[in-house]
Write a structure and sequence with these properties.
Helix content is about 65%, strand content about 0%. The protein has about 180 residues and is mostly helical. It has a single domain, classed as Hypothetical protein af1432 (Orthogonal Bundle), CATH 1.10.3210.
Amino acid sequence: MDEKSAIQILRKYAASERDFDKVLIHSRAVQKLALDVAQRISEQNNHIKIDMEFIKTASLLHDIGRFSHPPGKETIKHGVAGADILRNEGIDERYIRVCERHLGAGIPKADILKNNLPLPPKDYLPETIEEKIITYADNLLWGDKPKDSPTVIKRFTDELGENAGRRVKKLHDEIEDMMQGR
Protein backbone atom coordinates (compact mmCIF):
# COMPACT_ATOMS: atom_id res chain seq x y z
CA MET A 1 0.00 0.00 0.00
CA ASP A 2 1.33 3.44 -0.90
CA GLU A 3 -0.02 6.99 -0.85
CA LYS A 4 -1.25 6.88 -4.44
CA SER A 5 -3.20 3.65 -3.81
CA ALA A 6 -4.66 5.07 -0.59
CA ILE A 7 -5.90 8.18 -2.39
CA GLN A 8 -7.43 6.03 -5.15
CA ILE A 9 -9.34 4.03 -2.52
CA LEU A 10 -10.55 7.23 -0.85
CA ARG A 11 -11.76 8.57 -4.20
CA LYS A 12 -13.53 5.26 -4.96
CA TYR A 13 -15.67 5.52 -1.81
CA ALA A 14 -16.34 9.26 -1.81
CA ALA A 15 -19.91 10.14 -2.78
CA SER A 16 -18.78 13.46 -4.24
CA GLU A 17 -15.69 15.50 -5.01
CA ARG A 18 -16.58 17.76 -2.08
CA ASP A 19 -16.68 14.81 0.34
CA PHE A 20 -13.41 13.49 -1.07
CA ASP A 21 -11.71 16.88 -0.67
CA LYS A 22 -12.97 17.29 2.89
CA VAL A 23 -11.68 13.88 4.02
CA LEU A 24 -8.41 14.26 2.09
CA ILE A 25 -7.68 17.72 3.53
CA HIS A 26 -8.18 16.40 7.06
CA SER A 27 -6.26 13.20 6.37
CA ARG A 28 -3.32 15.11 4.87
CA ALA A 29 -3.22 17.32 7.99
CA VAL A 30 -3.27 14.20 10.20
CA GLN A 31 -0.54 12.67 8.03
CA LYS A 32 1.71 15.72 8.38
CA LEU A 33 1.24 15.98 12.15
CA ALA A 34 1.60 12.21 12.68
CA LEU A 35 4.86 12.15 10.71
CA ASP A 36 6.16 15.17 12.66
CA VAL A 37 5.26 13.47 15.96
CA ALA A 38 6.82 10.18 14.85
CA GLN A 39 10.02 11.98 13.84
CA ARG A 40 10.22 13.74 17.21
CA ILE A 41 9.68 10.47 19.06
CA SER A 42 12.34 8.75 16.95
CA GLU A 43 14.85 11.53 17.62
CA GLN A 44 14.29 11.28 21.38
CA ASN A 45 14.06 7.50 21.70
CA ASN A 46 16.49 5.39 19.68
CA HIS A 47 14.90 2.21 21.05
CA ILE A 48 11.43 2.97 19.66
CA LYS A 49 11.05 1.81 16.07
CA ILE A 50 8.33 3.53 14.08
CA ASP A 51 7.17 2.56 10.58
CA MET A 52 7.06 5.99 8.92
CA GLU A 53 5.82 4.63 5.57
CA PHE A 54 2.93 2.91 7.31
CA ILE A 55 2.01 6.13 9.13
CA LYS A 56 2.17 8.04 5.85
CA THR A 57 -0.39 5.75 4.22
CA ALA A 58 -2.53 4.67 7.18
CA SER A 59 -3.13 8.28 8.20
CA LEU A 60 -4.67 8.89 4.77
CA LEU A 61 -7.07 5.97 5.19
CA HIS A 62 -8.03 6.37 8.86
CA ASP A 63 -11.25 8.29 8.10
CA ILE A 64 -12.45 6.47 4.97
CA GLY A 65 -15.55 5.48 6.96
CA ARG A 66 -16.55 9.17 7.10
CA PHE A 67 -18.01 8.80 3.61
CA SER A 68 -20.81 6.64 5.02
CA HIS A 69 -20.83 8.08 8.56
CA PRO A 70 -19.98 11.79 8.51
CA PRO A 71 -19.89 13.89 11.68
CA GLY A 72 -23.30 13.78 13.28
CA LYS A 73 -25.56 11.27 14.97
CA GLU A 74 -23.85 8.07 13.79
CA THR A 75 -20.28 9.35 13.58
CA ILE A 76 -19.12 6.77 16.12
CA LYS A 77 -19.65 4.11 13.43
CA HIS A 78 -17.12 5.58 10.99
CA GLY A 79 -14.17 3.62 12.37
CA VAL A 80 -15.87 0.25 12.00
CA ALA A 81 -17.30 1.29 8.61
CA GLY A 82 -13.80 2.23 7.45
CA ALA A 83 -12.45 -1.10 8.66
CA ASP A 84 -15.17 -2.90 6.69
CA ILE A 85 -14.29 -0.97 3.53
CA LEU A 86 -10.61 -1.81 3.85
CA ARG A 87 -11.39 -5.44 4.68
CA ASN A 88 -13.56 -5.69 1.53
CA GLU A 89 -10.71 -4.18 -0.47
CA GLY A 90 -8.34 -6.86 0.84
CA ILE A 91 -6.14 -4.29 2.61
CA ASP A 92 -3.66 -5.44 5.27
CA GLU A 93 -5.07 -5.85 8.79
CA ARG A 94 -2.74 -3.16 10.18
CA TYR A 95 -4.65 -0.47 8.22
CA ILE A 96 -7.98 -1.95 9.30
CA ARG A 97 -6.97 -1.67 12.96
CA VAL A 98 -6.10 2.03 12.54
CA CYS A 99 -9.63 2.69 11.25
CA GLU A 100 -11.22 0.76 14.09
CA ARG A 101 -9.08 2.13 16.90
CA HIS A 102 -8.54 5.82 16.17
CA LEU A 103 -11.71 7.30 17.71
CA GLY A 104 -10.84 9.45 20.73
CA ALA A 105 -8.29 7.23 22.42
CA GLY A 106 -10.15 4.08 21.58
CA ILE A 107 -13.34 2.56 22.93
CA PRO A 108 -13.23 -0.42 25.29
CA LYS A 109 -15.79 -3.21 25.02
CA ALA A 110 -17.04 -2.39 28.54
CA ASP A 111 -18.02 1.14 27.44
CA ILE A 112 -19.79 -0.21 24.35
CA LEU A 113 -21.87 -2.53 26.51
CA LYS A 114 -22.43 -0.06 29.35
CA ASN A 115 -23.50 2.78 27.05
CA ASN A 116 -25.26 0.59 24.48
CA LEU A 117 -23.11 2.03 21.68
CA PRO A 118 -23.98 0.96 18.12
CA LEU A 119 -20.73 -0.98 17.61
CA PRO A 120 -19.88 -4.67 17.60
CA PRO A 121 -18.83 -5.38 21.21
CA LYS A 122 -15.05 -5.64 21.34
CA ASP A 123 -12.11 -3.48 22.38
CA TYR A 124 -11.18 -0.73 19.91
CA LEU A 125 -8.07 0.58 21.67
CA PRO A 126 -4.93 1.73 19.84
CA GLU A 127 -2.08 -0.65 20.67
CA THR A 128 0.87 -0.11 18.35
CA ILE A 129 2.99 3.03 18.40
CA GLU A 130 1.76 3.86 14.89
CA GLU A 131 -1.90 3.50 15.92
CA LYS A 132 -1.30 5.73 18.93
CA ILE A 133 0.49 8.42 16.92
CA ILE A 134 -2.24 8.57 14.26
CA THR A 135 -4.94 8.67 16.96
CA TYR A 136 -3.09 11.45 18.80
CA ALA A 137 -2.66 13.49 15.60
CA ASP A 138 -6.30 12.96 14.61
CA ASN A 139 -7.47 14.18 18.02
CA LEU A 140 -5.51 17.42 17.67
CA LEU A 141 -7.01 18.33 14.30
CA TRP A 142 -10.59 19.38 13.74
CA GLY A 143 -10.72 19.38 9.98
CA ASP A 144 -7.28 20.79 9.31
CA LYS A 145 -7.36 23.22 12.23
CA PRO A 146 -5.06 22.39 15.16
CA LYS A 147 -6.32 22.32 18.74
CA ASP A 148 -4.33 21.95 21.96
CA SER A 149 -4.48 18.92 24.26
CA PRO A 150 -6.52 20.58 27.05
CA THR A 151 -9.20 21.61 24.52
CA VAL A 152 -9.29 18.10 23.05
CA ILE A 153 -9.50 16.43 26.46
CA LYS A 154 -12.34 18.75 27.50
CA ARG A 155 -14.20 18.04 24.26
CA PHE A 156 -14.04 14.27 24.73
CA THR A 157 -14.97 14.56 28.40
CA ASP A 158 -17.96 16.79 27.59
CA GLU A 159 -19.16 14.70 24.65
CA LEU A 160 -18.41 11.16 25.82
CA GLY A 161 -17.87 11.33 29.56
CA GLU A 162 -15.09 11.15 32.13
CA ASN A 163 -13.74 7.76 31.00
CA ALA A 164 -13.26 8.97 27.44
CA GLY A 165 -11.60 12.16 28.67
CA ARG A 166 -9.23 10.17 30.89
CA ARG A 167 -8.29 7.84 28.02
CA VAL A 168 -7.55 10.80 25.76
CA LYS A 169 -5.46 12.47 28.47
CA LYS A 170 -3.52 9.26 29.11
CA LEU A 171 -2.80 8.83 25.38
CA HIS A 172 -1.77 12.48 25.00
CA ASP A 173 0.51 12.26 28.06
CA GLU A 174 2.10 9.07 26.72
CA ILE A 175 2.82 10.56 23.28
CA GLU A 176 4.00 13.89 24.69
CA ASP A 177 6.32 12.12 27.13
CA MET A 178 7.83 10.13 24.25
CA MET A 179 8.33 13.34 22.24
CA GLN A 180 10.24 14.71 25.25
CA GLY A 181 12.36 11.58 25.58
CA ARG A 182 10.74 10.55 28.88
